[in-house]
Amino acid sequence: QEMVETLRIQDLSLQMAEQKIIRERRKREASEKAKQIFLVNISHEIRTPMNGVLGFAKLLEESLVNEDERESLQMIIKSADQLMAILNDILDFSRLESGDINFVNQPFVLKDTVRSIYRLMEPAAAIKELKFSYLIPEDMPVVLSGDAVRLGQILLNLTSNAIKFTEQGEVRISLHVVEKLADTVTVEFQVKDTGIGIPVDKHQKVFDFFEQVTNDTSRRYAGTGLGLSIVKRLVELQGGEVFLDSIVGTGSDFYFRLTFGRVTEQVCRKTLQLL
Ligand code: ADP
């Protein structure tokens, strides 16, 4: 009788513990959701007046002749641009989290996408006197079918991180064909740097929402901790995978694989002619 009673009590306390865990999980999920809704709303609210600030500052820049005034205005524009980029990251991340995002599947010239990211980041690499290059092998199909804008966004995030966290040496973007089938081709994109590196215990964590390696890093290097979580989701939602090899003090090697559609000779020619 006593044993039955003890078992019953044990069972009851187990049930209570389980309920407590469920309650806590629900609370966590609700607070996570509230945080996201808050972020989306606040980002939207800030973006509208920011558009005004940026728009008028750019207008004014064109008409100003005084060099000092122009410089001050350029600082305003730079800060506003940065703020807009952060807001867009937050909105993008929320959209990705809620699955409210569509990918296009259209022919595009792969080397143009890569080159445009290279060009965009070239000045930042030049300021730090880094060797900066990209390499596309001969066997890579020229025209592929997929979402070129999203691919550009992924490459831009990884490349700007690579430059941001590298003080000397080089940043290299390289592409490899992983598998070429009749209708598809899987490409590996690699962004490799000789920067500060990431400790092994953070290799998974850096892909989390708002994660930055250390407070020290986040103070020295501006950022939101959103870039890599956006990269991971953008790649995974397209059926791909992201990897990271990194050694502290030596450098980081971020790479991801994406599968694209192949196009016919005719579509290829048409795409190249259109550009
Ligand atoms: P952010 O760069 O805005 O802080 P990310 O999500 O892009 O956010 O990166 C998260 C963190 O991962 C960074 O704060 C940094 O600590 C680390 N990290 C990302 N890329 C690199 C890199 N190439 N080298 C060293 N650390 C990196």
UniProtKB/TrEMBL annotation:
What's in the keyword line of the UniProt record? Kinase, Membrane, Phosphoprotein, Transferase, Transmembrane, Transmembrane helix, Two-component regulatory system
Please verify whether the record's keywords include Transferase. Answer: yes
Give all residue intervals belonging to the Histidine kinase domain.
41-262
GO terms for MF: phosphorelay sensor kinase activity
UniProt entry tagged with the keyword Lyase: no
Q: What's its EC?
A: 2.7.13.3
**Broad EC category:** transferase
Give the reactions, separated by semicolons, that this protein catalyses.
Answer: ATP + protein L-histidine = ADP + protein N-phospho-L-histidine
Q: Which domain of life is it from?
A: Bacteria
Query: What is the protein named?
Result: histidine kinase
Organism encoding this protein: Pedobacter steynii
Q: Which residues of the full protein are shown?
A: 87 to 361 of 500
